[in-house]
Amino acid sequence: MTHFSISEDLLQAENAARKMALDEDYAALARALGRRGIDGDALTRRVMAFGVAIPTWGVGTGGTRFARFPGPGEPRHLFDKLEDCATIHHLVRATPTISPHFPWDATSDYVALREVAAKHGLAFDAVNSNTFQDQPNQEHSYKFGSLSHVEPAARAQAIAHNIDCIAIGRQLGSKALTVWIADGSNFAGQSNMTLALDRYLDSMREIYAALPADWRVFLEHKLYEPAFYSSVISDWGTSFAAAQELGPKAQCLVDLGHHAPNVNIEQIVARLVRFGKLGGFHFNDSKYGDDDLDTGSVEPFRLFLVFNELIDARMRGAEGFAPTYMLDQSHNVTDPIESLMQSAIELQRAHAQALMVDRSALAATQAANDALGAHLELKRAYTTDVSPILAMARLRAGGAIAPIETYRASGYRKHKAEERPPVARTSAGIV
Ligand code: RM4
Ligand code: MN
Ligand code: MN
C-alpha cells in the first residue's frame, strides 16, 4: 500500500495563496523592528536555526487515567509514528529530531530504523527509559519502585533496562539518556526517604558508568504522581544534588509540568544554568500539575520568561550551557499532529521574543533599580507579534506559511484513517 504524504504541489499552492499578505506583514514588522535597532532578517535566521524534538509517544492520542478516546488514523507502530513526525517537520521545519521511549518503541533492527528515519529527514534525540510500568513477562515488578526498589534484583533489572536503552541509543545516533522514575511512596512511613535516595544513587552510578564518553544522562524530577506522598526525585534540588554526585555527564531535565503550581520555573532554569547542570527540557503546559497540555497554551508568558533566561545564558556564554529541547505532551481532545505543530510554533515564538529583548537596556534598568523600566523591557519584546517572522522562517526553510491550515487542506488524517485500520487497545493513556 502506498503511504499518503503531503505533496509539494499542495504545499506550494497553499503558500502561494498566502504569500502576498505575508510579504506585506513581514515588511511592516521588519520596519518596526528596524526602528528598535533589530534586524528582522537576522531574527528570521535565528528562528530557522531552532529545533525541538518530537516525543514519539506524542503523535498518538494519550488519554487520561480515566479513559482514552482513540482518534482516526492513529499510528499503530513506530514506523507510522515516523511518518507523522516527518509530516510535522515537513510543514513546520522546526522539529528535525525525535525522542524515542523504550520499550514502547522497541523494534528488531535499530540500524534499519535509523535509516528509515533519515529518509524522512529525521534524527534521534535523547532516548527515554521506562521503569514506571511492568512489561509482559517481566521478572520483577515495579509496583514498589525501580531504581530505588528495596529488592536488589528489581533494581538490577531497572539498571539493565537503562543500559539497554543506551545501547539502542548508540545505534540510533542519540547522545543522551533521559531517566524519569515513578519511585516514591504513598504513605508516611512507607519508605525510608534517605535510604531510597541512596539506592537510587547507587543504581544511577551503574548507569552513569555505562555512558559513552560523549553522552549525557538527564535526571528528570517530578513532584508527585504516581507517588502521592513522596517522590524520590521530587524537585530540582534533589535532581541537582544527584547530578552533582554522579559527575559531569549527569545534568537535570526540566519538564514544565513537574512542579508545584506557581513555582518560579524560570528561576529554576537560571539556577541550573548557574551550576552548569541544565541538561534539557520537556516542554508542555500545565494548569494544575503534570497536565501535559500543549506548550504555550496556558502560560505563554512563563514560556517566554524561560527563554529569556536561556538567551541570557547564551549571550553570557555560560559554561556548560547546551540544553536539548524536547516536547512532552499528551493529546486527548485534539489531533496530535496539529497540537505538536502548534507547540513547536509557540516555542519558536518564545525564542524569537526572547531574542528581541534589548539586553543592554535591561541591564541598565536593573543597575538603576528601575523595576518597572526593567519589566517594560521584557514586555516590549513579549507583546510584539512575531508571527510574520515565524511564518517567513518556515517558508524560507521549505515549510508551510500556515501549517495547520495546510495540514487540514491535505486530508492527511482521512488518508491515514484508511491506511491504518484501528487496532484493539484497551488501556488508559500514558499518564
Ligand atoms: C512522565 C514524565 C516522562 C515521560 C512520561 C510518559 O510524567 O514526564 O518524561 O516519559 O511521563
Ligand atoms: Mn517529561
Ligand atoms: Mn510528565
What does this molecule look like?
The chain is an alpha/beta fold and 431 residues long. The protein contains 15 helices and eleven strands. Helix content is 48%, strand content 9%. The strands form three sheets. Strands 4-5-7-9-10-11 form a six-stranded parallel beta sheet. A three-stranded parallel beta sheet has the order 1-2-3, covered by helices on one side. The model has no long low-confidence stretch (mean pLDDT 96). The structure holds beta-L-rhamnopyranose and manganese (II) ion (2 copies). One manganese (II) ion (MN) binds next to loops.
Overview in brief:
The protein is of the alpha/beta class. It has helices spanning 8-35, 40-48, 78-92, 110-119, 152-172, 193-209, 236-246, 265-274, 300-316, 336-355, 359-367, 371-382, 387-396, 403-410, 412-419, and strands at residues 53-55, 97-99, 123-124, 127-128, 176-179, 184-185, 216-220, 230-231, 250-255, 278-283, 324-327.
Give the topology.
Blueprint lengths: L7 H28 L4 H9 L4 E3 L22 H15 L4 E3 L10 H10 L3 E2 L2 E2 L23 H21 L3 E4 L4 E2 L7 H17 L6 E5 L9 E2 L4 H11 L3 E6 L9 H10 L3 E6 L16 H17 L7 E4 L8 H20 L3 H9 L3 H12 L4 H10 L6 H8 L1 H8 L12
Parallel strand pairs: 1-2, 2-3, 4-5, 5-7, 7-9, 9-10, 10-11
Antiparallel strand pairs: 6-8
The structure holds beta-L-rhamnopyranose and manganese (II) ion (2 copies).
Beta-L-rhamnopyranose binds next to loops.
